[in-house]
Design goal:
heterodimer; A: mainly alpha; Arp2/3 complex 21 kDa subunit ARPC3; 3 domains; two-stranded antiparallel sheet; globular; B: mainly alpha; 2 domains; two-stranded antiparallel ribbon; 2 strands; 73% helix; flat
Chain lengths: 348, 270
């Protein structure tokens, strides 16, 4: 479920970065204010624990294949939403930098899909409601399964929305949803079962850990509302700034299609959601891109200009060959440069 | 179990690269973090059918890795391990996007294939940039850079804790998991019940360990921040580095340098 940079547009990526940054700032403030400083080493060490736990596999009942723990809900049950969000976020940072499991620009999306949903939605609104104040084993198991399924469904839907809004993958919205949701229903049930088993074990062996975590976080609706609001504000702010920046350059897709077909109608064949979002972006953007398109089109007029439908296959072939040769050439130059720099380094 | 040991060894190797000493290693980490971000944003800001224009961007990872004296073969292997995932996602594009877009001799290439190729090149560039950032900076310096760029302290402090204890806990987890595997002849007993108690034990040990660590740190005067021996300065060199590369990225983004060079070459030959 970790998203990669390659499928993301800068507008979606930076908007989610802004949102994740706001959530990190809010959670850090909360952790600093409410928890004793013993929690910060605990958070870090538990994050490392999640890392270790994710590497240990188990056999999934009735299928024979193997799975591993995700850990978002488990951390939230043990640490509470704010500390858990920070811990999940830092696990994602290490995963993206050392294993390329999720991109750097996609960190915001991943923190939101894998951290925000379990910590701020599934745990307070579902797990706590089902498990209740005096949690019994059965209620904890039920709560964990329902919360894990809900968290993963929301997360998977987040992945679909972010990917479709980015418009790099051609996967239609409906197909993508149809693929993602059922898979994550199964994953969610397994995740819930595992979480419940581990919590039950810890509860039996060291009840004070689970009970202490439950007692230290009273559940209210106000913090959730506040966090959703600040999240939305941050997303709108960064998204607005980026779409303003982006609209100075014509949208890559429109430009590419216009360049190839000489018409812009093709863009209407996009999925309704992407189209709707594009409309919204056009309305929200401070500078409508029409005023710039003419300029940029003639800028690139040397290759194929946008308006000229008369431009035939020959010239199109010409440009793609020129582009291909140039790509190889630039690759060769880059690697020669690297070779020379490295040689110089070794000689020195 | 070799998988876990392999992953830990891999993590250590990437981390050890940062102990090198080169022009790139000596730069302030903030400059490298910012440049990497500008690089990634420029690469992904291309439209989905852009393919050739992405290639000039290889100049940054290649030059940075060479200047930092990072082992090329290792980086390529590490990137190659991630590319299949990008390929799986990219493979779906040709199925849904069959509009012919380019002509390669007698072959009409559909938009889906072009965007699939584009996704793979993007993945190589962005993944490579992230690995190179860690290899020439090191995780501690990246965290310090994040903090000096305004990331809240509780987040960076626990990020450092997390990183420090990954090595300890993955090794412990690997030992526990190996023991369980050796006791489960014919793959029986690897199910949920043994997993639950295994992970539960690991969790309780981790928890107690965290408390001991914290007490030990308090005894040594820990006040909630880490001090590093030397702090680098964001000087003129760093400014020049960030602005120079960013300017190049913006130029490469606005002007298809590959097609320009191709045309130049064609002009020279005819």
């Amino acid at each position: 479920m970790h998203m990669a940079d390659a499928l993301l547009s800068p507008a979606v990526g930076t908007a989610m970065w802004g949102a994740a940054a706001a959530t990190i700032a809010y959670s850090s403030m909360k952790v600093k204010k409410e928890l004793d400083d013993r929690r910060i080493p605990l958070m870090g060490v538990l994050g490392a624990f999640i890392f270790a736990a994710q590497m240990i596999n188990f056999t999934i009942p009735a299928t024979g294949s193997s799975g591993h723990l995700g850990g978002g809900l488990l951390l939230t049950i043990l640490l509470g939403p704010h500390a858990a969000f920070l811990t999940i976020a830092s696990v994602l940072v290490v995963q993206s930098l050392f294993f390329a499991d999720g991109g750097v620009l996609a960190l915001g999306c991943n923190m939101f899909n894998l951290g925000f949903f379990p910590a701020f939605i599934a745990y307070p609104l579902i797990y706590r409601k089902i498990a209740g104040a005096q949690a019994t084993q059965r209620r904890m198991t039920g709560g964990a399964i329902v919360a894990a399924v809900a968290g993963l469904q929301l997360g998977a839907f987040g992945v679909v929305l972010e990917t479709v809004a980015s418009g790099i993958s051609s996967l239609p919205f409906a197909t993508f949803v149809g693929l993602m949701q059922p898979i994550h229903l199964a994953i969610g049930i397994v995740e819930g079962l595992v979480t419940a088993t581990v919590v039950a074990f810890v509860y039996k062996a060291r009840p004070e850990i689970v009970a202490g975590a439950m007692a230290s976080q009273p559940v209210g609706t106000a913090p959730l509302r506040r966090i959703l609001f600040s999240f939305l504000a941050a997303a709108l702010l960064t998204g607005g700034v980026v779409s303003w920046f982006a609209s100075e350059n014509p949208d890559g897709l429109e430009w590419a299609i216009a360049r190839v077909t000489g018409a812009e109608e093709v863009a209407a064949g996009e999925s309704p959601l992407h189209h709707g979002l594009a409309d919204l972006q056009e309305k929200v953007a401070f500078l409508p891109d029409y005023s710039f398109r003419q300029g940029v089109a003639t800028d690139h007029g040397a290759t194929v200009s946008a308006g000229e439908t008369g431009q035939d296959k020959a010239s199109r072939l010409g440009t793609s060959v020129a582009g291909g040769v140039g790509a190889l050439l630039s690759l060769a130059i880059a690697f020669c440069l690297g070779f020379v720099l490295k040689r110089r380094h070794q000689v020195a | 179990m070799r998988a876990i040991d392999g992953a830990v060894a891999d993590l250590k190797r990437l981390d050890l690269l940062a102990t090198g000493d080169s022009v790139m290693h000596r730069l302030d980490a903030r400059a490298k973090v910012l440049t990497t971000l500008v690089f990634i944003i420029s690469v992904v800001s291309f439209g989905r059918y852009e393919f050739t224009a992405l290639f000039p961007f290889f100049i940054y990872p290649v030059v940075a890795a060479s200047l930092a004296n990072l082992p090329g073969g290792y980086l390529i292997k590490k990137i190659a391990m991630v590319i299949p995932f990008a390929f799986v996602v990219g493979m779906l594009n040709p199925l849904f996007d069959r509009q012919p877009m380019a002509q390669l001799g007698p072959l009409a290439v559909s938009g889906g294939w072009i965007s699939c190729a584009s996704i793979i090149v993007r993945a190589v560039l962005t993944v490579g940039a992230a690995f190179i950032l860690v290899g020439m900076t090191g995780f501690l310096s990246v965290c310090q850079a994040l903090e000096r760029l305004g990331t809240p302290k509780p987040f960076t402090v626990q990020l450092l804790f997390l990183y420090r204890y990954i090595f300890v806990l993955t090794e412990e987890g690997a030992r526990a998991s190996r023991a369980r595997e050796l006791r489960s002849c014919g793959r029986k007993g690897l199910g949920l019940s043994s997993f639950g108690s295994l992970i539960g034990h690991l969790l309780i040990r981790t928890w107690l360990r965290a408390e001991r660590i914290h007490m030990a740190m308090l005894a040594r005067g820990f006040t909630g921040e880490f001090h590093s021996g030397q702090l680098t300065r964001f000087g003129a060199r760093e400014l020049f580095f960030v602005l120079g590369w960013s300017a190049l990225f913006v130029i490469l983004r606005l002007e298809n340098a590959a097609s320009f060079m191709g045309r130049l070459l064609a002009g020279l030959l005819t």
